[in-house]
Amino acid sequence: MKRMKAMIAYDGSGFAGYQVQPDSRTVQQELMNVLKTIHKGQIVQVVASGRTDAKVHATGQVVHFDTALVIPVAGWLKALNVLLPEDIRVLAIEETDSSFHARYHTSGKTYRYKWDRSQIISPFTRNYMVHTKQRPDVAAMRQAAEAVLGTHDFSSFCAANTGVVDKVRTIRRLDFEEHGEELHMVIEGSGFLYNMVRIIAGTLMEIGLGRRHADEMAEIIAASDRSAAGKTAAAHGLYLEQVVYKG
Amino acid sequence: MKRMKAMIAYDGSGFAGYQVQPDSRTVQQELMNVLKTIHKGQIVQVVASGRTDAKVHATGQVVHFDTALVIPVAGWLKALNVLLPEDIRVLAIEETDSSFHARYHTSGKTYRYKWDRSQIISPFTRNYMVHTKQRPDVAAMRQAAEAVLGTHDFSSFCAANTGVVDKVRTIRRLDFEEHGEELHMVIEGSGFLYNMVRIIAGTLMEIGLGRRHADEMAEIIAASDRSAAGKTAAAHGLYLEQVVYKG
Fold first, then answer.
1. Catalytic positions (chains A, B) (predicted)?
2. A57, A91, A122 ranked by CB distance to B120: nearest
């Protein structure tokens, strides 16, 4: 058996999320359907770095699967992209060590969150950016972002319905980029709790819109209480951009 | 009665085209539905500069309609965009002369056709650009484009199923722009026959891919025969970008 590691991109608009669930179109199910076809009916498990929610996009999700088939990597790339629906693309694939694990061996992830500050949102970006008609104060968002950097208990930025006990995570980078009317938040960390990026984005936007003060961010983190933070930003602005592995 | 002129953009992906047709979702029908709501059930006719086909996009379509309502333009813009589905946006609206006609008074139109030359097409652009995996020779396409400029009988570039008799049109501009992996054809002319832009795009791409020689373009025009030209390029690469009016 060979273990294959693939980097994939998907447009989350048409999916109920990454992970398989009954009666829903999911990225994992589409990948498994195609691998089943390639393996002549045999079920092949696919393991991702983590799940993404409905409408959330990926430009650099990583998955692994095991195969007994002897196919060169160019052949894998071609076969997968011919068989997959167009809203999922395999960007790269390689044979990896049999001990590699797409989920357990991550050492970090980068997410990007996109807002569109245009007066009228383009019909072409409606599924790919979140519209904010009122112009946010990006300087205030940058100032508040500083409090997020480093190692903290992120209980305030974790959806209540989760079984995770250890909520300490390390954020290495939290930048804002402005590309014309687009405003991007780029966040890189050791790992993320459920909805953590979207709650951080939502809270920082409330600060940008003057509904909260930039100084509050440190207090919100210290509160270790979901109700202290802002609203969860909409799913369709979020992109899983990169997954980094140990070693 | 006041005549209102509006510039609209739409993502063609979810429409069977601009023009109303039974049991299909069309841009015109969505506009008329919203105007009917605003006019408390009264039917308001909407006239566009011309129809666009299924999957064809617009970034600068122009329409007009008549209304007895007294609403400031900012109010019109807001009301229309609140009520319209997100894949249609009104970009601008103004009161215009009652003699203005969105279809009859056009003096020119600009279309843009987009190809993606990436090895693997992004899942985010699949509905907005046409993938060409083989890299086209843009210099050859530019050379061939020169033959298209000026006033010609464009019968070779007109879908056979049309009742139009006069097939003479003037092309004022035909440029290729390269934006990273994107290749755009921008074409501006006095008017366009049915499928004319897509047949020109398809024929120029065949030249770019070496299936025809750049010199053939003049002969194809001279033939005045649809079968002399190349295939009609796919609809989802096409954008109606600008409509120009007389006077």
1. 53 (nucleophile)
2. A91
CATH topology of domain A2-96: Alpha-Beta Plaits (3.30.70)
Complex-level ipTM: 0.88
Give me the DSSP letters along B175-219. EEEEETTEEEEEEEES---TTHHHHHHHHHHHHHTTSS-TTHHHH
- Return the pLDDT at B164: 82
Tell me what pLDDT residue B159 has.
86
At residue A160 the predicted structure's pLDDT band, cuts being 50, 70 and 90, is confident
Q: For chain B, positions 100-139, list CB contacts with chain A under 8 A.
A: 120-124, 126, 128
| A-B Cβ pairs (cutoff 8 Å, strict) | 46
CATH number of B107-245: 3.30.70.660
pLDDT digits (tens, 9 = 90+) for A122-146: 999 999 999 998 999 999 999 999 9
* CB proximity B218 to A under 8 Å: no
Residues of chain A with CATH 3.30.70.580: 2-96
CATH 3.30.70.660 domain span(s) along chain B: 107-245
**Under an 8 A CB cutoff, do B126 and A9 touch?**
no
Of B77, B120, B124, which has the smallest distance from its Cβ to A128's Cβ? B124
Place of tokens 């208990």: A153
In percent, the amount of chain A with pLDDT more than 70 equals 100
Amino acid A1: pLDDT: 92
Q: What is the mean pLDDT of chain A?
A: 96
Which chain A residues are Cβ-neighbours of B90 within 8 angstroms?
A: 120
The binding site of A comprises 111
Other C-beta atoms lying within 10 Å of the C-beta of residue B65: 19
Can you name the residues that pair with A152 across neighbouring β-strands? A169
Per-residue pLDDT tens digits for A10-50 = 999 999 999 999 999 999 999 999 999 999 999 999 999 99
Residues within 8 A of A (CB atoms), B 64-93 only: 77, 81, 86-91
